[in-house]
Specification:
Blueprint (H helix, E strand, L loop, with lengths): L1 H19 L7 E5 L2 E4 H4 L9 H28 L2 H31 L6 H11 L9 E9 L6 H10 L2 H8 L5 E5 L6 E2 H4 L18 E6 L2 E11 L11 H30 L10
Antiparallel strand pairs: 1-2, 3-4, 3-5, 3-7, 6-7
Amino acid sequence: MKKLSLFLITALTLISCDLLEGKKDGVSVAKVNNTYLYEADIASLVDSSISKEDSAILVSSFINQWATEELLMNQAIINISEEQQKNYNKLVRQYKVSLFTEAYKNTLVSRDLDSIISQDELDNLYDKDKVNFLLNDELLKIRYVHLDTDNANVTKIKKLLKNYTDKDKATLSTMNLQFKAVNLNDSVWVKKEALLSVLPIVDKNEVDLTFGRFNEIKDSTGIYIYKVVAKLNKGDVTPSSFIAPTLRQIILNKRKLELIRNIEKDITKDAIKNNNFEIYTKE
């Protein structure tokens, strides 16, 4: 047994060496009944970055796995009824057709799909279907800062955040290093849930987030100063700006489906025109 193992490892090492040297002469390396495994089939397994011994082990493992699958397949063909085999072959055929045709259609769609969407198209879709876009979460337009409790500029920052002129915004922007968390862009809708990661105090019931509210709150983590510029509740219609990516995807999906329908229609029409597709009818 030891001699046989040594012989196999030596043989596999020689095979892996041949593969590393680029020999691809159609030499078989294993056989199960009438099915052969060739050097070319395992060439991709061998890498010059690993040792000859490791290559031999890798090749041996692959060959054993291949042999096991072939032997199981042979026994399956013997023991599974012809009717079952027909059904399985039909499923394999259907899967292959689906895999190839989907890949081909996706290639054509990637090449031909018009991905440019105008604002008018987005607005038209939103106006048509906005009753279907209802909020599942509260949305806020809010500006805020989170400071250390010992920050010496709390009064100044609070005044800047409350007045919020263009000059105030510019001043606050220069003070970013003083903030533990900050959002000065209050023109963008934000989910209340998303605020929890940066403003955990928002999760407390006593925090007032009503429209127009300006507030300062202190806790063990520091000082929170915020201004609620706008607010929408659950069940309200979602603003178009917030779901613009969704609207864009809906339009693209519609275009994609229409393009695929045209591809299928055109390929059938061309086949009939060129006599590549005919339906025989009984007279």
